[in-house]
Design goal:
Strand order of the largest sheet: 1-2-3
Oligomer: single chain
Shape: globular
Distance between the termini: 31 Å
Strand content: under 5%
Number of helices: 15
Largest sheet: 3 strands, antiparallel
Number of domains: 1
Order of helices and strands: HHHHEEEHHHHHHHHHHH
Helix content: over 70%
Amino acid sequence: MRAISGSVATRPEALPWRAMRSAGWALVGSALLLALVGLATVSSASSELGGSLLARQAIWIVLGIVIMGLGAALDGKLLLRAAPAIYGLGLISVGLVTFLGHEAGGSRSWIGIAGLGGQPSDLAKIGTALLLARYFGGLRQLHLDLRHLLVGGVIVALPVAFIVVQPDLGGAAMFVPLYLGMVLVAGVRVRWLALVAVAALAVGPAVWAFGMQDYQRDRIATFVSPERDPLGAGYQVRQSKIAVGSGALLGKGYGQGTQSQLRFLPARHTDFVFAVLAEEWGFLGVLMVLGCYSFYLWTGLRIATRARNRAGVLLAAGLLAALAAHLLYNTGMMIGMVPVTGIPLPFLSYGGSFMLFCFFVTGVLLGIDMRRYVNRL
């Protein structure tokens, strides 16, 4: 009787750690591999700076691993209870940085402390995802109705409004896939989605006229007609295409890319780090990295389906949708498929707050996988 009692008492604690040997370890392994690839690529792209960016990126990765551990260790119910506070903190941070932040690339969306910088919008993404998961997860019906879509839309619109004012339209746009990922998983009728799409199209002209700076309109115009300004707004994409194409099958070798080493490619360690990787590692290297991303997302989706409650599934779906959107947009930007904007590449681009965001997503997914046998997130 004692043995049976002991077995039952320890089972909830033992099973989650055993589960780490499969999907959890695969998820962590792919995240760490991508971060190490990014560290090596940032080192090559910023070699003229004497390794200062390499050291900072290494610090962010170490902090990210700590955040991943915390995200996995925290009970999901605790995170959801704290969602309003985290969301409020995110709103305050994006509001303050709008007026007091550091301006870079035409947008006042950055803060810097002791030489390390980041964007509060990444904290706002986490708070928004948690609050949406808490709200949608508490609904007990098969399909969301228009009222639920509007409440969720307001939750998203508040931080987005501050980010648009900064102005950082690219960062604001990344809240959309987070919202849509949750809405689609929660269940929504097609007519309501069509209504939301029509409303978004209706406000498009107003955004173009009043919500964009001149340089942002130039980027979109150059995307539509690349030859109009090859040495100005179209310069980044032009050099990126040269870098990607010159990598050919096997690449030019690590640290041997002419576009990056001779500084022809702007933002080569941040938004255009993927072009550096393509030039140095070639098509096969790019294929391997994209395969690693695909494995990460596929593993994350497998874990999401194992969540024991609705809020856990929704949270995982929204966070994965946000990461996938960053990946698709950034890689599309490298070859001129979408307009250029400041969208970093998950785990690879130089930067702090987004690296922490990526590892936090990994930690949340890891926590879901570890707790799939017990009745909690």
